[in-house]
Amino acid sequence: LVSLYSFDTEDEAIRLANDTPYGLNASIMIGSLSRGRALAARLHSGTVNINEGYATAWASTAAPMGGVGDSGVGRRHGTEGILKYTESQTLATQRALGWGAPAGMTDKQWGEALVGIVRVLKLVGRR
């Protein structure tokens, strides 16, 4: 299904294009690529093509593809697409420090020491 509307201003074109509960794909045919990108960013659509119907975005398998609004059923392609088939799990092993304060330190001292260690690690670029 393709909808075509006449318009007088770019703002009116964006308003008309966004006046729908759907937002799978949109296309902008325009001479200026920079204006096209600026307008594309204002469209409520999962994919927006500039000077093309759909093939460029559809063939970009590294880019996420899917709709917004009532067309929003997830993503395919790219990292976002593969993530729908995964279930994340965190496995953590404490190898250096136990839960409690070391002998000779209060819990408060141990907490302050840990905060200091984290600050130093952040300063040196460790996460």
List descriptors.
127 residues, alpha+beta, two-stranded antiparallel sheet, two-stranded parallel sheet, 5 helices, 4 strands, elongated
What shape does the CA trace take? elongated
Q: Give helix and strand order, one letter per element, not per position.
A: HEEHEHEHH
Largest sheet: 2 strands, antiparallel
Average pLDDT confidence is: 82
Helical content (DSSP H or I, runs of 4+): 25-40%
Through-space gap between termini: 49 Å
Based on secondary structure, the structural category is: alpha+beta
Strand % is 5-15%
**pLDDT < 50 runs, ≥5 residues:** none
How does this model look, in words?
The chain is of the alpha+beta class. The protein contains 5 helices and 4 strands, in the order αββαβαβαα. The strands form 2 sheets. The protein has a two-stranded antiparallel ribbon with strand order 1-4. Helix 2 links the parallel strand 2 and strand 3. The radius of gyration is 25 Å and the shape is elongated. The two termini are 49 Å apart.
